[in-house]
Amino acid sequence: MLLVCLFINTHLLYAQSLLGIQVISKGTPDAFTPQRFVPEQPVMAALQQLPAATLPFNPADINIRITERGCVVEIPLGADEQLYGFGMQINSFNQRGLRVRPVTNDSPLGNVGYTHAPVPMYVSNKGYAILINTLRYTTFYCGSNPRRRAIAAADSAGNNTPALSTDALYMSKDQDKGNMIVDIPGARGIEIYIFAGPDMKQAIQRYNLYAGGGVLPPLWGLGIKYRVKADFNQQQVLKMAAYFRDHKIPCDVFGLEPGWQTASYSCSYVWNTKKFPQPEQLAADLRQQHLHVNLWEHAFVNPLSPLYKPLEQRSGDFPVWKGLVPDFADSLTRNIFAAYHDTAIISKGISGFKLDECDNSDLGSADRTWSFPEASTFPSGITGEQMHQVFGNLYFRSFYQLMQQHDQRSYFDIRQLGAFASAYPAVLYSDIYEHDDYIRMIPNSGFCGILWSPEVRESGSVTELVRRTQTAVMSAQTVFNSWYLKNPPWLQYNTARNNADSLLPEATQTEQTIRQLFNFRMQLVPYLYHAFFQYAHNGIPPFRALVVDYPQDANVYNVDNEYMIGESLLAAPLTGTDSVRAVYLPAGDWYDFNTHRKYSGAQTYTIHCGFNQLPIFIKSGTLLPLADPVPYLDAAQPFNITCYAFGPGNATAGLLEDDGETFAYKQGKYNLITLSWKNGHGSMQRRGPLKAGMYKIRKWVPVL
Amino acid sequence: MLLVCLFINTHLLYAQSLLGIQVISKGTPDAFTPQRFVPEQPVMAALQQLPAATLPFNPADINIRITERGCVVEIPLGADEQLYGFGMQINSFNQRGLRVRPVTNDSPLGNVGYTHAPVPMYVSNKGYAILINTLRYTTFYCGSNPRRRAIAAADSAGNNTPALSTDALYMSKDQDKGNMIVDIPGARGIEIYIFAGPDMKQAIQRYNLYAGGGVLPPLWGLGIKYRVKADFNQQQVLKMAAYFRDHKIPCDVFGLEPGWQTASYSCSYVWNTKKFPQPEQLAADLRQQHLHVNLWEHAFVNPLSPLYKPLEQRSGDFPVWKGLVPDFADSLTRNIFAAYHDTAIISKGISGFKLDECDNSDLGSADRTWSFPEASTFPSGITGEQMHQVFGNLYFRSFYQLMQQHDQRSYFDIRQLGAFASAYPAVLYSDIYEHDDYIRMIPNSGFCGILWSPEVRESGSVTELVRRTQTAVMSAQTVFNSWYLKNPPWLQYNTARNNADSLLPEATQTEQTIRQLFNFRMQLVPYLYHAFFQYAHNGIPPFRALVVDYPQDANVYNVDNEYMIGESLLAAPLTGTDSVRAVYLPAGDWYDFNTHRKYSGAQTYTIHCGFNQLPIFIKSGTLLPLADPVPYLDAAQPFNITCYAFGPGNATAGLLEDDGETFAYKQGKYNLITLSWKNGHGSMQRRGPLKAGMYKIRKWVPVL
Fold first, then answer.
1. Shortest CA distance from B371: residue in chain A
2. Which superfamily, per CATH, for B219-525?
3. Is the CB of residue A237 less than 8 Å from the CB of residue A228?
4. Is it the case that residue A15 has pLDDT exceeding 50?
5. Is the pLDDT of residue A577 over 90?
6. CB contacts < 8 Å between A and B, how many?
7. What confidence score (pLDDT) does residue B703 get?
8. Is the confidence at residue A158, as pLDDT, over 80?
């Protein structure tokens, strides 16, 4: 098996490529690494089906230098390579020529590389990915700093024309000429994982498959999640649920924020019965309305918590908000944490959690120091620095093992993840709120096996609300996070007015727009569900940058505001107040989702998108199954499907049919439906052991 | 001698306090530390005169933990201690409760602690300073993160009222309760210097005296420095010089920017004779007009430079702007660098340099990577990280040794300094430009033996120009940096219009205001010169925070926009467009510099300050010697002094008399003049070996 090879003499590995994944090692690697915490076995079957690949460089040319200061790795870079990755980067996309420090932080800071989800891995458009297997704070110089060499005098000015502004002065002139330099202070040795292609997408697939394959959310995870105001009580929650159902606004998950607990900063994990006198009844009432309940929490254990005593000797030496920091690097600690949640909370009807505050404090603000210092120590021996890079992964892992034990999938919200988290059904979110950043994080998330939800909170205008909603609908998870809003933001986007019940004059019309956009989401669920299955099964990220699919098209190298959804859809969200934007469409023909207008690709268009539309383009040759909208998702209630065949040729599409909520699909308990459009006629073929149930194909519509 | 003690078993040192300076050590300290590069011997005589002091904590309670990750130092903190320092901090002042990472960076980044001048030292208002003797990037948790302890349940909420905004959520609640935690990743051992008081000021004095005492600039260094546009040629420089003299605007130094060299990014250190056909003649012409010449450069050696070959094997492995990074940690490298400058440049009539770009690139911008990576290696063995923390110190040291050899003082501009730089006659400057920050950096600089010049460049209005000029006049060095301005900014503050020769309608009037403010500076020079002598001789910083003089006054703990100048002046610069500001005056009576109006202290006043005034307050009991303004400074031309006696009592003041330009004062070749105001009569007494020359006392004026 692959895992066995990791500590073998790596010189051997230079010569052989095991399923396109090589490990190079030197010195004494750390005991605590991302690889140590990979939660799943590699998906060998899918790895074996990927084509063989040669790397564009000789791995023997990777130089690892170990000094007293740490390890420095130098990896060849081609002159025209484009680099991506490093986790869910917020304000950068194409990393070539940049210095990137992917470190867990609760917000970006300048353009350092800080992120909720640092992954020490980059992907090249030349068809490979490289992961530095470390939890230490590491800096990547992505060709930004060439080494000194014999310099031709011709390189130099000699005829000095001094710059007359700092911008002119500091324009980078030397970029794109150096190798990748990776600086890992403190390391006494290092392992390097190389995931081969031949293409970028396959390199990403290998990484995801090595980590256990991507996520398949429960079907209900693909619906709408609405988080209510933090101080709501049981009655207010139920009233809000009734509003959704009465107004026929689709919703699948209701989230409760800190107020459900007796203490929340730090956490007691105990229901506040003053506000929620009958929590089990609440959960049952909501489930009856087909609403799954998700509870907010963080990992820091308040002295009031029943978990305090059991974890007191199993925590770090620095508290957070006076609460314990459990040593999640120790499986027994995870088990204790999980067992309590299972018995006390989950068994009472709770479907999922929002795991907050696991993304350090804000390293950029001297007075925001609530999280544990990097110098913290833990009983397991992991350092505070390493813990920060893996804290979300390990925190989530407590719950993941419960899901596996109960054979029940879920779809969490989480504020930190790291490397090898592809299999974790948890979606990142953030307190930051720039819409452009929120969009950029969608294509960025796809490089490194993570998912991102550009949640909607307040807005500055109806237009902003609608544009943000469109983005949320076209993402891995559609979340409205109204933790400080009494009314849904479509009734009043302004926080103060919302909480004063001063609703918009156009509230009804705006509600109708949002309903329409949510309905689009529900229509897309069968397509999305299959795209996620491709993620789980083959490692293909359901949301990914255009460059992943078009690595040779230089026009997409810096496109960070469009992305692919599944095999055939291209999303191009709008921001600001404009009703148009520029959209680059790669080679081939494309169709507007709303108007079915056809565009020839390899060009940039100015595209209009109305409020009641989605800025989506469909590749010619696509068979797109769209469902009739439903108010909630239930695998037992069949989707009524209309199949749209875009373009003149034949086309196929897949649909996944399973129970929608267990891991049985991993044992082959699913059907794969192949929809075919051939010579103007549609047909479907079902393969698999299950009874038909999830889909009814109603109509076939050709679009030319 | 003190230096001998450093590597002695430090347990001994617990028991004995050598001149109030203790060193605690554990493990194997780094070979490269700030202490290794202290340029001067301690000023033993002055150290011996400081009073004995006991620390407010037991040094035996300092805990040093060495783990595989590095060193963690924990130092007791009193509940109500106020902490300051960490070098020239830009956007923080009172550091208590903050996390501070004093790392060399060319601009601030959030509130991380990045600075042009990182000093790993803090000063407590309880009367001591602690320096961590490291060049590693170090994080100080200034009581921000208390360790975990048995937590009373009462500490916790139990009655949860959830926050409803992120601000409310993340308000620091736990601050001010922990010890000082110092995180030094990578270190295998550490030395800690403790400078005792008994008061804050004396702790700072001990630090400065240990490092060789403060700076005494040449007399001309206290005048006005004007830097001309980077693309000026020889004629344009001379024309500008004539403007100053014709218009009777005081000036002592002219600075040339990059255009004087044949190559500047990186540097050739060779005159561009196309623009400057006769550089020696230019220097002579300017000197004849009593203008010293200062040349811009940085340390990165262009292949065109005569220094390239000699330094090629003496440099780091990463270039900067294709230029060598000399290994200044090696004294031979410094000697080569210095010798070239001496022969080729200084000997041709150049008085000083502006040492630019030694403050790393911008760690906050992924695409600003021009400087050498932290992973760089150097022949001496110093790491890139350590080099960044000491690069300015070592760069300047090349020149300092020349000054000493030639027995010629100078006053440089520099963009980076670090610990133990108190004796270096070099003043920090910056590309950042927030006026509030510029003011805050003045009191901050005084905690750690550094000087700061809040230079004036362009402005947004005449008011801004005047307020900035007032601040510059009340600082360690008055610099107008017109490197991108064709005309002086007082003729046109706007860059584009300035360079288009479109001067202000009120140019003449504004010029008159600036002339008046410059004249104030010239009037203050005798007072300032003596304040600097106190710095050199006793280690008392000439510019310092109010808390240094009033450590018991809680009202000044957070005052970062007022500061002391010398013994008796309090400066309170104005910013923005207001003509008034709030000024807190500590206990005692104070007098307005302009109106002589009297204020009772321990109160806050709203103060008006006109354009032709200085926002300065004079402590009652002060004898203030003011000179008649002169167009330039020359120790051979006596100052005509009027002595103002503020307040009803007797008063004294000091004046330093020396040659104004050599280090002879260090061998006692100076006079100290004591001015006395006693019972309504003034008198002067001169002690010292020199002939009288610098001062003529003209008048005595009582102010009541």
1. A145
2. Glycosidases (3.20.20.80)
3. yes
4. no
5. no
6. 268
7. 97
8. no
**Domain chopping of chain B, boundaries:** 2-147+175-210, 219-525
Residues of chain A in contact with residue B227, where contact means CB-CB under 8 angstroms, are none
CB atoms within 10 A of CB B40: 17
Helix, strand, coil percent content, chain A, rounded in steps of 5? 25, 25, 50
User: With contact defined as beta carbons under 8 Å apart, do B546 and B586 qualify?
Assistant: yes
Partner-chain contact A319 B146, CB within 8 Å: yes
* Residue B163 with chain A: CB contacts under 8 Å: 230, 258, 265
B600-642 tens-digit pLDDT: 999 999 999 999 999 999 999 999 999 999 999 999 999 999 9
Q: Which residues lie closer than 8 Å to A284 by C-beta, 6 or more apart?
A: A349
- Cα gap B324→B337, rounded to integer Å: 12
Q: Which residue of A has its CA nearest to B273?
A: A159
pLDDT category at B693 given cuts 50, 70, 90 is confident
CATH code 2.60.40.1760 for B2-147+175-210: yes
Q: Output the furthest CA–CA distance in chain A (Å, rounded).
A: 81
The answer to whether the CB atoms of B145 and A318 lie below 8 A apart is: yes
How far apart CA A422 and CA A323 sit, in angstroms, is 30
Residue A170: per-residue pLDDT: 77
Contacts of A356 in chain B (CB under 8 A): none
- Whether A186 and B181 lie within 8 Å, measured CB to CB: no
Q: How far is A533 from chain B (nearest CA, A)?
A: 36
Q: Is the model's pLDDT at A173 over the cut of 80?
A: no
Interval A670-689: pLDDT, tens: 999 999 999 999 999 999 99
**Residue B433 C-alpha from the chain's centroid:** 16
β-strand A224-227 against A118-124: which pairing, if any?
unpaired
Report pLDDT digits (tens) over A385-397: 999 999 999 999 9
Residue B339 parent element (H or E): helix B331-344
CB contact under 8 A, B98 and A229: no
- Beta-carbon-side half-sphere exposure of residue B598 (alpha carbons within 13 Å): 11
Q: Distance from B398 to chain A by nearest Cα, in Å? A: 23
Give B215's Cβ-side CA count (13 Å radius). Answer: 29
User: How many CB atoms sit inside 10 A of residue A15's CB?
Assistant: 9
ipTM score: 0.94
* Residue among A618, A637, A638, A639 nearest A628 (CA): A639
Q: How confident is the model at residue A3 (pLDDT cuts 50, 70, 90)?
A: very low
Beta-strand ranges (E) seen in A577-615 are 580-585, 589-592, 598-600, 603-608
SS (H, E, C) A143-183: CCCCCCCCCCHHHCCCCCCCCCCHHHHCCCCCCCCCCEEEE
What's the rounded Cα separation, in Å, for the pair A90 and A101? 12
* Chain B residue closest in CA terms to A361: B170
Give the contacts of A661 (CB within 8 A, at least 6 positions apart). Answer: A218, A219, A220, A408, A409, A635
CA distance B161 to chain A (A): 7
Average pLDDT over residues B214-221: 98
3-state secondary structure A229-275: CCCCCHHHHHHHHHHHHHCCCCCCEEEECHHHECCECCECCCECCCC
CA distance, residue A557 to nearest chain B CA (Å): 17
pTM of the model: 0.95
pLDDT of A16 reads: 43
Q: How far apart are CA A302 and CA A342, in angstroms?
A: 18
Name the DSSP class of B502: -
At CA B694, angle to CA B689 and CA B699, rounded to 5?
Answer: 120
Cβ neighbours of B148 in A, within 8 Å: 315-319, 324
Question: Between 3.40.1190.10, 1.10.510.10, 3.30.70.141, 3.20.20.80, what CATH number should domain A220-524 receive?
Answer: 3.20.20.80
Set of chain A residues whose Cβ sits within 8 Å of the Cβ of B321: 173-174
